[in-house]
Design goal:
The complex is a heterodimer. Chain A is α/β, with parallel strands linked by helices. Helix content of chain A is 45%, strand content 21%. In chain A, strands 2-1-3-4-5 form a five-stranded parallel sheet, with helices on both faces. The termini of chain A are close together. The mean pLDDT of chain A is 85. Helix content of chain B is 46%, strand content 17%. Chain B contains 27 helices and 28 strands. In chain B, strand 25 and strand 26 form a beta hairpin. The radius of gyration of chain B is 54 Å and the shape is elongated. Classes of the chains: A alpha/beta, B alpha+beta. At the A-B interface, helix 1 of A face helix 21 and helix 22 of B.
Amino acid sequence: MATVLVIDDEPTLVQLLTLWLEMHGHQVLTAAHGEAGLQTLEQAGVDIILVDMMMPHMDGITFIRHLREKGYDQRVIVLSALPGNPDLEEAGVIAQIRKPLSARDRNELLRLISAWAVPHA
Amino acid sequence: MLSKSQPFLIVLLCLFAGLLALQLTGGLRLPDIVLQDLQSRLQPYSLKESKVVLIEARVSHNVDPAKFGQQLQRLSALGASNIVVLTRNRSYWDRFRALSTSPNMPPFVLPTPFDPVNTTEPAAQGVICPPSLTAGFHLQLPRRPAGGDALCFQHALVPEGTEGAAGGLWLNFPQGDSYLPTLSISQLEQGLIPRTEVTGKTVVLAPDATAFGSVALPGHFPSEGIREARWQALALDNLLQQDGLSQWPAWLTVVILGLLLVALLMGLQWLSLIPSLFLLLLLGSLTLLAGWFSLHYLQSLMPQSLLLLASLLGFLAAVQLRRQREEDSLVSVTDALHQTLNTRLNPPDFYGTDQPWQQIIVFVNQQFRLARSIFLERIPGDHRLKAIASLNCQITDIHEMRRDYERTPYSSAIAADGPLLLEQHYLQQGDEDEQQYLVPLMLGGEVLGFWAFSVSRESALSASSLDTLRQFASEISELLYHRREWQRSVQRDSGVLSRMLRFEAGLTPHRQLSQLVALIIKRHRSSLEVFNELSAAALVYDLFGQVVQTNLRLEALAKDWDMPFYQMTALDVLTRVCGMDQSQARDTMQRVTLRKERLTLLARYPERAEGSLVEIKPLLFSQNTDPSEEAQIPFSIQGILFEFQVNSRYGQLQDLTRDLFDASHYQIRNHLESASLAQALAAEQLPDEPKALLAQSEEQLQSALSKLNQVGDNLVKMLSHDNSQLFPLNILTALKQAQARLSSQVQARGITLDNRFPPLAPLAWGSPGLLAVILDDILAVLLQDAGSRTRLVFQVQQLEENGERLVRLTCTNQGYGVPQENLLDPAPSRSLMSDPLDRLRQHQAVLEDWQGKLWIESELGRGFCITLQMRSDV
């Protein structure tokens, strides 16, 4: 089991992702944008972060930059409708999955989360 | 052959012949002698010693020849080289003649005192030739007859050949009256003459000097003249001293005259009036100086009057010719300007028109919705008014008949100084609901006219409307006032007397030209204003890549972008602003100059200018341009216009697109994403059958999302200029436009266009300007080859090849065709770009740049099939 922080500005999508991940045995924390995500990180331990790119207040790239500046080393998976950005790999992003999530994408996502969750368990 | 186009030669020959004739006929002798007289007074050198001594009887003296013989012997003893006895007294002469035969007499010369022609007396020692009168002066001594004896006694005393050229010797008396030593016969008789006065000199004895008349001489001589005996002695001295003057040789006069005229007529063409006058004065002074020098140092009489007159006439001719040419040019320019300006829209000027009220009516009608309007003008110098123009009614519709502005309702309107609502009907036949107003048209207290109008009661005027009308009336008054003042000043300036006082009476072409130039300046200013007010930043280059004109917006852009457009060539702009390399930029320039293409490119500089477009257009000559003017300009292009659409509608559209994209596209996508995920979650919980249905529905949602993403990607590409120069184009629209351009040719030949288009317009990537050119050339090839009353088929298809979406346009005709091998090998005689088929071959490279294709197929007897394929991943 892993503790996953889902950061996205679309509440329905966040709820559905929470439901889906909880169905697969993971604990889920949520935030509506990057700034809220950083606050959540200060209060709770998180194993892996799923983050959208386009969000109000603080977008995904800025969130990742602040995350690394504050010394957090959590793995990050980017979920975005935008095409992949190679620069993000250097910032510790382990995968960039393009929306919409197909069944294969969802399986890949679960695999990545589980792979990270096992050593921590 | 001389013609009117060579006035130089005509004037030169006329002047030359006229002046020469005047000189040869002696018409210039008097001024020449007057000048010689003046110049001989300016003697530059000291007195010479005379070789002649005159001994004369100053009063009537009874000479005894017997005694006189003794005196002659005394003179001989004193060393006189020659003794000449001058007498006009017949009895004296007879006695002297008898004396000459006496023994022991020294030889002396006794000239015959008579007319040599009419006397039978021997004239072996010459005669006393009477001085000939020339222009009031006695300056010439007759010449010795060729090969004959001495004519004048002076000839007998000098070697042959020193008596002057043809026409005789011109005497020179530079030293004046005091030069010749003169003694009296009494002194001789009394033996009082010193030896030094006589030794080695020729003594002229004039025992009856008083019998000689007076002759006039120039220079330092008494104005009443001198005795002729004295003149004869002076003439003898001239010959002995060889001081006589000669005339300029005729050939030299002709050459100098010709050279002077040529130099003047050529040189004065380059100088304006004042420098020409200075040159004339300089030439005159030099001529006089040369005449003086020639007289005193070269002992030659220069034809000064001829040269002075030649200078003056040359100057006048040059000035007149130049003025005539300027006048001709002015008339020609004025005619050309008239012709040019008449071809353009030329509305009558408000100030100059005879009917200003019609313009005011139109002006008012454009601004206000009034039921009826009538304008009244004040009769000049009177307090009465006359109705002058009306709108939506007749001039005769005025009910009020007095038309006197010192009475009501006019006086009330003047007192109100604005629109006055009239209680009684001012206009006839008004509706009951109509409200009528009267507004004075005044400026500075002066009444210029009145404006009566009515409005329906429904649209009754508010206080602000009335104020607006008052302001409007004030503006009209000002217009009328200035027009009247302008017309007064024009009338004043155009009066004949006024023009004559200004010395402008005959300057009609100049006045016309100045009016035309004023009109041109006015138009130029308004064109410049229009140019400056363009929404695009505009930059005009000439064919040689130099900046010709810019507008204010471009100046602002240059400052904003820190881009020195003024120092950049068109090529520089393409490379720096559009991010092209040199080769691409040169190709682009060729397309604009040779193919006359209008291109739309994306500006890539600076980065913050994202979304700006550069339109490049050739500035072509209009149809009515003077053909001779056009022939001087290559490529038929005046210049190249660059238009930077920075804050244009395109930019606004981009911003709007981005906003819409941000606001709706991501939301829709997120909602679809949520729905897709929700379905996936639900499906995991359901039995197989509904699960399959949900999976199918989810696939559809996924497909919709993919397409939505693709649209987003393309928009992002477009907005970030990933496809420089390329835009999504509606190929059906472009094709229809090309067909419309050639519709007259199609109709004339009875050709049918068969368009087979899909219901939805497919978009393809390309450059709009160039696509139009390519389609034009495709149609041109098909039309050239097609038979009359045949069919051209245009088929547009969407297809997918190797995962790439494409749009294909297939164009076929029913024509004559060419063998396929000829398509690969163009005829060498055809010049580049001259033939649409050749141009299509050039376009193939363009299509490859667009990641598309263009291929041409043909078969003899069947016609052409041209296929255009473009990328369509839009």
